[in-house]
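Hey, sorry for the delay on this. The queue was backed up all week. Below are the sequences that define the complex (chains, strands and the ligand SMILES where applicable).
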Amino acid sequence: MSDSRAWDQRYAGEGFAFGAEPNLYLRSLAPRLRPGLRALALGDGEGRNGAWLAGQGLATTSLDWSPVASAKARVFAATQGVAMDVVTADLTAWEYPTAQFDLVAWIFVHLPAGDRARVAEGAVRSLAPGGLLALECFSPAQEGRRSGGPKEPSLLFTRSIVETLFAGLETLELLEGAVLLDEGPKHQGQAEVIRALFRKP
Ligand SMILES: C[S@@+](CC[C@H](N)C(=O)[O-])C[C@H]1O[C@@H](n2cnc3c(N)ncnc32)[C@H](O)[C@@H]1O
């Protein structure tokens, strides 16, 4: 999907396209989080990850270009009883603040190469020293599988793309392999992903 209107359509129905529970990789990072940290959830869709981070006590900004997703994320945060700043903006055009976040969550956001590099640059800039960047995205081995992800192969993440994008960060982990997704109707079944955690020096 290549524009916000297409995502609006995808999010138009009832329910949550990628579920209401947070992404499992993000949830596994809970021991590294503590209340008061500042988080940015990129391409946060209907807000499952942002709202979970806010529920962990993080001051969370949830960013997505789909107004429909943003509206659903606001309602979702309210029903979860958490405060979350929901921003409707294009990730490639947003003015990333400098050193403002302790965690950036980049979960299943697949962008064309130029946009990907621009967003990575902004995301890295927005991290405070010691801040973490958590990423989960589909790898090329996902091509042809029906468990989720973009149909356009150039949007998939390879290990070397990830290493290049975040070369300025310390790699805490970089994992590639099969996982079993159970994230709403759009992410179901065995899938090939990259999971990575980086820290800004
Ligand atoms: C596969 S969904 C994942 C949503 C969420 N991260 C999750 O895991 O539930 C990808 C999201 O990225 C958003 N997105 C894609 N390109 C974007 C852009 N250029 N600016 C802002 N959001 C974008 C889409 O609107 C969509 O909500």
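The longest strand covers residues 170-183.

I'll add it to the shared folder too.

S.
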